[in-house]
Amino acid sequence: MTHKILIILIVLLIVLTGAWFGLRFLIGGEEPVVCTMDAKLCPDGSYVGRVAPNCEFAPCPGDTPEWLAIKQAINNCEVESVWQTHARTVGAKLKNGEELAAVEPELDDIIDLAIVAGEKCGEILMGTE
Fold this sequence. Notes:
7 strands; 3 helices; four-stranded mixed β-sheet
């Protein structure tokens, strides 16, 4: 009789443990994110990979938030004019009057972006020293 009770308790313990792990997965468990093993070549010659949770490429060295904001504004056709110095300090005047400033990773990066964006956005005024 005690063997039957012991077996019933062990089975019950196994069932309850399985139910607890199952509920934990269904209620609050997030599935792990797996990104492809792509690599992006950065202007400085280094490579970056994709990172969770959105599997977007990690920023390249030199991609500061300020520089990324200017790149995004240029690509979104929000920029009226851009300028740069030999020290790689750059600026962008947006069509809404706002001005952005940053340091570009490589000299003329902002000019190259403005030329490419000009094909879809129209002419972007450019100034350099």
